[in-house]
Amino acid sequence: MYPFFFLHLTDPHIAPPGELLFGQDTNARFAAAITAIAAEASSTPFAFAIVSGDLARDGEPAAYQALTEMLDALPCPAHLMLGNHDVRASFATAFPSAPLDADGFCQQAFDTPAGHCILLDTLTPGAPHGTLCAARLGWLAERLAEQSGPVLLFLHHPPMPIGIPGMDAIRLLDGEALWAVLAPHRDRIRHIFHGHTHRALAGSWHGIPTSSLRGTAFEVRFTAGKLAIELQAPIEFAMVRCDADGIAIHLAAAPPLA
Ligand SMILES: [Fe+2]
Question: Ligand 1 center to residue 52 CA distance, Å?
Answer without folding.
Answer: 9
